[in-house]
Specification:
The protein is mainly α. The chain has one domain: Glutathione S-transferase Yfyf (Class Pi), Chain A, domain 2, CATH 1.20.1050. It has six helices and no strands. Helix 1 packs parallel to helix 4 and helix 4 crosses helix 5.
């Protein structure tokens, strides 16, 4: 069970996030002269690649209310920011019903809602 949680978390933290973090997006724009459309296409490509794999993994009886079982885990802590960013970059999440469902479950918890970027003291 712990290995499954770590594998799900690592898919997001190691396969999706490094390619789509702010530093990479700024490099695309500032050094490679990628325009906004190209930057958004880059983002959408890598989130789609990762979410395609994740959606398949979540088609398991081990998936419950959350990524693994009925209690939030590290996997859910990694899922929520990736969904937030996908929404921010207007990636269509229609092909990811399990990911969307789990994200909604997470956001029902006050701890996840309080951690949202817009709820941080330095949010502008």
């Amino acid at each position: 069970e712990r290995a499954r949680v770590r594998a799900i978390a690592q898919l997001m933290a190691c396969d999706i996030h490094p390619l789509n973090n702010l530093r990479v997006l700024q490099y695309l724009q500032n050094h490679l002269q990628a325009d906004e459309a190209a930057k958004n296409a880059w983002y959408a490509h890598w989130i789609t690649e990762g979410f395609n794999a994740l959606e398949q993994i979540l088609q398991s009886p081990q998936t419950g209310r959350f990524c693994h079982g009925d209690t939030p885990t590290l996997a859910d802590c990694c899922l929520v920011p990736q969904v937030y960013n996908a929404q921010r970059f207007r990636v269509d999440l229609g092909a990811y019903p399990e990911i969307s469902r789990i994200n909604a479950e997470c956001m029902r918890l006050p701890e996840f809602a309080a951690a949202a970027p817009e709820n941080q003291p330095d949010a502008a």
